Each structure stands twice: as C-alpha cells, then as structure tokens.
Request: fold
Amino acid sequence: MQMEMEQKIAFALALGTLVMLVLLGLTVVASQVDCPSYKPLYSQPGLVLVYNISVTQGTYNESQLRTETVISRNLGNYTARILVVNTTVGANPMIPLFNDTSVYRIDEGLGMEEIPLYDVMLPMGIEDFSVSGMKFLGTRYYDPNSGAIITIDQNTGIILKIAYSGMGYEYTATLIRIDGGSWCNAW
Reply:
C-alpha cells in the first residue's frame, strides 16, 4: 500500500514537471512571436546607428555624420545602408561622401562590421557610454593592425567609439544616436 502511494506521488511529480516544462517552452515561443530577439543586436533589421566623426590634420578640421541602417538579415550575414555626409561649417551637406549598401558576415567572435574581437584585438579596459537614453558598458580594444582603439559593447556588439591618431591626423567616430530595431531580449 505504501509503495503504491509512493509510485502515485512520483508519477504526479513527474507529470507536473513535464507540464511545467511544456508551459515554459510555450511562454518562450510566445514571447519570441511578440518580440523577436535577433542576436547579435547590431544586425537587427530597422536598427539605425548614427556616428559623429571628427577628422583633424594640423589646423584642418572636418566633421561628418555616418548613418548605418540595417536593411535585412539572414542566418549568415546582414545588409546595411551606409550614408556619410560632410557636416563641416561651410561644406555642402547635400553631397554624400559615401552612400552605398554593404553586406557583413555574422559569426561567433565578430563584432559589428565583421570586427574580429578575440583573435586579433587586445582588450584595454572598459568605458561607460550613454546613448539615446540607453547605458552601455563598452570594452576598449587595441587593433594592432591599424593602431586604432575601438570600443564595443559586449552585450550588443555595437561599435561605440573608434579613435585613431597617426601619420599627422586624428580620427574619432562616436555613436551619438540609436533608433529602431528590437531591444527586447526574451531569451
């Protein structure tokens, strides 16, 4: 009699656990339908990233705005439209310096625009960023190939800042605005 009761309790617990797992799975699926999570976040269709670029060489200063809009994404890559305009005082902003689409590969260990984070880059520390009301903790990397210091958010893969100085000029690109994309993260 006692053995029969223990078997019934064990069966009820196993059945209850199975039902809970099924419900949990359905909850995750439902949340993905309402709020699709594309990882990495930098490749979400509709995401718009705007960078302020400053180029200085001696007494010459040039300001640019770079807008990257993610157009589409599939399993192995994403397509982005990139527009760079000159915003230097006195320049004609109607003539783009660069206006084209680019296809970038998505793979483990790559940041946005196929930047290799682990094989080549050397981590140099962290830096806090706040853009469009969102806070980021960026990891600063030194790129031995170019000499640039690139700050990338580890959670999203988004480039927050690029700084380079050498050969008589300084180049700085800083993320100033984020729009669009899906910032929900259901899994």
Remarks:
- The first helix runs from residue 2 to 34.
